Amino acid sequence: MSTGLWVLAAAVVVAIAAGLVLRARNGKVRVAKDSAALPAEVLAVLDGDVTLVMFTTQFCANCKYTRPVLRELAEHTDGIAYAEIDLTDQPELAKQVSVLSTPTTLAVGADGTELLRVGGVPERDELLQNLRPHLR
Amino acid sequence: MFEGAPVDPRGPRFAAWLTTAVLAVVLATGWWPLLAAQAVVFGIGAFVGLKQAPYSVLYRKLVAPRLGPTDEREDAAPLRFAQAVGFGFAVIGTAGFVLAIPALGLVATAFALVAALLNAAFGFCLGCESYLLLQRLAPSNR
Question: What InterPro entries does the annotation carry (chain B) (predicted)?
Fold first, then answer.
């Protein structure tokens, strides 16, 4: 078999494996491991017990699916607020909050600490379940 | 730069399958003119407009009439940015083949194929997702 065919086979395997991993990770809640201080740009949008901060860019394909989930959650749950930060022209901020892909949603407590984060489109009920202990 | 009217999301998915097939042929045969043609297709989608992109035209003429209308729409900017990323890989791949650096040609084409297949099979737009990563890697990073 030629080198090109081997590369083709490898690329197909990698794409399928990556697709399965990405599908499994999409929307999963990851509880924050440390409570490093968040940048002022994030602290400036905090409002309520927990603020869901969605990081987006002009080229975010799935932000339009994430936005209504977060908005609905904020509108119907006391203590939860929703904010959006566009990282298109803010690469330094993206680096500070360790966001490499969008949408990434951070749940931030009233004291400015990161509680959890979600990459991709979150599962509403799973997210709410993880936020309940932080709501008064 | 990458703005435009929202599109039927089934069009980009169709284009991703076609792109996957084209790139698979390139890898299997090493026939670089086909990769160069794919670069042109990417370039039209990215820098001229999705409506003018050849695969979009094929979708509208041949496929859409059989599927019927849909109210769903997808933003153009992420799709055009992804086309620009594909354009970059296709140009690098073509240069690799033309300059007798086949490893470069194969690797760049393989990257483009992985992205196209991820989009076609899983609906995951790797090109769109890579914006922040590319921005971080860019030398002009502020």
Answer: DUF4395 (IPR025508)
- The structural domain count of chain A equals 1
Q: Do B30 and A4 touch (CB under 8 A)?
A: yes
Q: Interface pTM (ipTM) of the complex?
A: 0.88
**Quick one: closest CA in A to B117, which residue?**
A15
Return all residues near A72 (Cβ < 8 A) that are at least 6 apart: A124
pLDDT per residue as tens digits for the range B46-58: 999 999 999 999 9
Here the CATH number for the domain that contains residue A69 is 3.40.30.10
> What pLDDT, in 10s, does the model give residues A56-104?
999 998 999 999 999 999 999 999 999 999 999 999 999 999 999 999 9
Cα–Cα distance measured from residue B125 to residue A121, given in angstroms and rounded to the nearest whole number:
14
Do residues A73 and A129 make contact, with C-beta atoms less than 8 angstroms apart? no
Distance from C-alpha of B134 to C-alpha of B142, rounded to nearest angstrom: 13
Nearest CA in chain A to B124: A19
Q: Does a structural domain hold residue A8?
A: no
Q: In which domain, by residue range, is A71 found?
A: 28-134
Report how far residue A11's alpha carbon sits from residue A23's, in angstroms, rounded to the nearest whole number: 18
Two tokens at B28?
A: 């299997």
